[in-house]
Structure formats: C-alpha cells, structure tokens
Design a protein that fits this description.
alpha+beta, globular, three-stranded antiparallel sheet
C-alpha cells in the first residue's frame, strides 16, 4: 500500500456491502456521505499519528477486564434496529459532548446522513438501556464480511459502567452472529489518547499506511 497524503475525501451516497468492505480495508471511514482518511490529527496543539483499527473476529477472546464489564452491566438491555435520530438520542448526544474540552461535534447530523439507515449503506443502531432509559448507542455499518462503528455516544455520568467498551463487545457479538470476519471500531492514535480503550482488544490489527494491515503491538506501531 502506498503512502497517502494527510487528508483525502470523497462523497458517496450509495455503496454496496462489498464496496464498504473494500473502503474499510483501505482505511476509509465516513460521516454521512463524506468518506475520509488521514494520517495525522491535531488536539491541543499536539499532532497525533492515526491508526485505523480492526478486530479479527476469529482471534478475539474476552479478557478478564471485559468479562467484568459485561458482569457489571447485566442489568442493562440491548436493542438492535435500523438507525434513526430522535429527541432521546439528541439529548444523550448533548450529554455525551460534555466530555470534550475541544472540537465538540455540533449534532448527530454531523455523523449520520438524512436517511441514516440506508445512506450511504445499511446502518443499524445498537442501543443500551437501563431501567427503560437510553444510556448508550453505537451506529454500526453493515458490510458483506465486516461491520464498522460510525460513532458511539453514552451518558458520561455512568462512566463506571465502561459503556464504550460494552458497546464494542456487543458489536463484536453481533458481527460474529452475522458471520463477519472483521469489526472496525474506528481510528485511534499511536500516541496515548482517550481512544486507547480501543487498543485493549485481542485480535486487534492496525493499518500501516505503507505496508497494509498488521497485528497490533508495541513493536509493530513504532
């Protein structure tokens, strides 16, 4: 794979499951109909090196910590359905955004199209409820042999529940049930950052922009 420039993007309103698999394998992500990939990002005046990630579902096994996350969320319920935006999710999104000191996104419309369940591809929402209240949602694209998380939101007041990890675990389970080979949790950075929880999964691979996908590990990401 050849090196890419710092920022590439294109528009797409209709992609097949097979095409989505190929886009993800090449490091592309999308918000709405805008597809993008980039090698670096800036936060707080510091430049970070982007790591596209995916989990090889055949190689994934639960860690002890992930088992504890599942155990402490046994009182929650999971619902999977076609994606739509409503007042309940918008309110959750606003609570979620209080986590950000900078670059807070304006609304869910920044991440999802006007027809989020089908444009640019099939998308389902995996919702977490507790005592009838929505506390977390991840928006999951469905490809032919892979799935990919577009964005996830959760109630920051419930941080002890590790809802970001919980939604990844449920997404992995859903992906396996669909017979998929990969689950793409999105980008992280080579340097320490709040996205580091994505790096704590077995079966993890990262995209080397020059040489393709590699197993994740300290020696592989230098």
């Amino acid at each position: 794979m050849t090196s890419i420039s710092d920022d590439q993007n294109f528009l797409c309103v209709d992609a097949s499951p097979k095409e989505m698999d190929q886009f993800w394998a090449e490091g592309w992500r999308h918000f709405g109909t805008l597809f993008f990939r980039y090698r670096t990002a800036v936060h707080g005046g510091k430049r970070f090196s982007v790591l596209p990630l995916r989990i090889n579902l055949e190689r994934f096994t639960l860690s002890r910590g992930q088992k504890r996350v599942l155990a402490k969320n046994r009182d929650t319920q999971t619902l999977v359905r076609p994606t739509f935006i409503d007042a309940e999710k918008e309110a959750l999104f606003l609570r979620h955004c209080t986590r950000f000191a900078e670059n807070a996104p304006p609304s869910l419309d920044h991440f999802l199209s006007s027809v989020p369940e089908s444009i640019p591809c099939t998308n389902q929402e995996l919702c977490i409820y507790h005592q009838g209240r929505l506390i977390g949602v991840t928006f999951l694209d469905l490809g032919q042999t892979a799935t990919s998380a577009v964005y996830a939101i959760f109630d920051p007041a419930l941080s002890k529940r590790s809802l970001g990890i919980l939604m990844m675990l449920h997404s992995i389970q859903l992906s396996r049930e669909r017979g998929c080979r990969y689950y793409y949790p999105g980008y992280a950075y080579r340097e320490p950052f709040s996205y580091d929880y994505k790096k704590r999964f077995s079966g993890l691979e990262y995209l080397d922009w020059r040489n393709g996908w590699k197993l994740y590990g300290a020696r592989n990401t230098r």
